[in-house]
Amino acid sequence: MPVHPTAKVHPGAVLHQTADVGPETIIGDGVRLGPGAKVGKGARLRNQAHVAGGAQIGPGADVSAFYVGRKAHVGDHTRLEAGTGIGDNTRVRKNVHFEQGSRVGQNAEVGDDCHLGRRTWVKAAAKLAANVGTGRDVRIAPGVEIGADARLADEVHIAPNCKVGERTSIGENARIGIDGGVGIVPPATVGDDCAIGDGVRMNGGVGVGDRCNVDSNTSLGPEPSSNPERRSAPDAGSSRTR
Question: How much is the pTM?
Answer without folding.
Answer: 0.89
